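Moderator note: this is an archived Q&A kept for reference. The question asked for a predicted structure of one protein chain; the sequence and the answer are reproduced below.
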Amino acid sequence: MTARFLTLAIPMFTQVVVALALLGIPHITPRDLLFGIPVPEGFRSTERGRRALRSYRLRIAIPAAISLLGMALFPNPLVDVGAVLVTTVLGIASFVAQNRKLKPFAIQPSLIRQTTLSPSEPLPWFAWSGILPLLLLAGAAMYLHSHWDQIPARFPVHFSFDGTPNRWADRTVRGVYGPLVMGGGFTAWLFGLVLAGWYGSRRADSMRRPIVVVMLMVELMIALLFGALPLKLTGVIALPMSVMVLGPLALLIPAMAYAVRESNKPHDPDPTPNECWKGGMIYYNPNDAALFVQRRDGIGFTVNLANRWSWAIYGSLLLVIAGPFLLG
């Protein structure tokens, strides 16, 4: 593959993936939700439901196709980044627009108050496998430490599309262990999120177990990638970059398929009040003790922003991102 081909193919592939992900959102959510609105059974098949889906698809597909043509005709990094950002923003705006249009058709949730939290329920036994990714990263750190003399004094950490190194790092604590610190921070944060998601969501929520599985796979994927990256860059191991990226990513596919299947099974109606959802994406309810509730714009959980612990989650994520920069 030539450098020119890769320069064109990679950004365009990214644009296609983003567009397909946005187009897939209405189809991976439970059937009783449409653009964040709880709708009557069979509403998707009505003329109003089909029109909403058709409008949403066109508002994403047409700009995405135009941007792909622009990326092909005017290859430029700024054009590539701008195209992906515009597609993402238009996708979110289209979702919110359909959410507002479908509000008159919304079904109000049951007013029966549910037990929200159940700290006494034991965590699934397999959830403790979330410790293994941290052990993998620790093992990579020990291996680098024992082979410190084999690491070049200066090694490449970034490459152009044709494989030419264009950024270098020194054999220092930050240069060698930086990726491991970031990977360790993310995996520890994700494992904490697994625990918070299990104990901070409603006991009756049918998606608790599937989301634990997905989060564990994401945690393992990040640990494998960040664990192998410093070994590859320092020349300690020889492993194709495609294997390092696509191999861990493959772990997520069956977990996501399982979560989508479970999400579309019959389940209890969403008990969250419609008026507490902003655009079908943001949940704010001071009267709800749950920290996590099921998303209405896909599968998985989102935080209740009225719960003070939600800000602790976001604050801890900022600390994780800043971790490698604090190394000496």
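Archived answer notes: The chain has two domains: 3-105, 125-326.
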